[in-house]
Amino acid sequence: MTYSASEIWFIIGVLAVLTFLIRFSFLGLIGDRPMPTLVMRLLRYTPVAVLPGMVAPLVIWPTATDGIFDPARAAAALAALSAAYLAKNPLWGMVAGGVTLYVGLFATGQF
């Protein structure tokens, strides 16, 4: 299925408006009113949940290696998870995952 240039720009515009409305519904309508304690407590975990949410599909469904399980990426994900959990710091998890990934890619000849 192919789209013309005007159809693509129309889709981009619609998605931009919808994204704005979704964000405005939370940020604009609440404004400077205080949020409940439960909501504030749950919002603290948002940044920590975003990183695994971006990385997990790349480990579970690897498209870079034609859908074949990649032990280097799996080891990097495990190292990142372990380091972040033990150190209680997501930055250590990112460093451990990055180092493990490049060491694993170099060891398997993919780098």
Number of strands: 0
Low-confidence stretches: none
Number of H/I helices: 5
Distance between the first and last residues' Cα: 35 Å
The number of distinct structural domains comes to 2
Percentage of β-strand residues? under 5%
The run of helices and strands is HHHHH
* Alpha carbon gyration radius: 20 Å
How would you state the average pLDDT, rounded?
87
| Backbone shape | flat
Largest sheet: none
The secondary structure category is: mainly alpha
Helix content: over 70%
Describe the fold and architecture.
The protein has five helices and no strands. The protein is an all-alpha fold. The protein has two domains: 1-33; 44-111, no CATH class. Helix 4 packs antiparallel against helix 5 (90-107). The longest helix has 26 residues, at 5-30. 12% of the residues are buried. The model has no long low-confidence stretch (mean pLDDT 87).
Report a brief summary of the structure.
The chain is mostly helical.
Fill in the keyword field for this structure.
mainly alpha, 111 residues, 75% helix, 2 domains, single chain
Please outline the helices and strands:
Layout: H1 5-30, H2 37-43, H3 46-60, H4 71-87, H5 90-107
Helix pairs in contact: 4-5
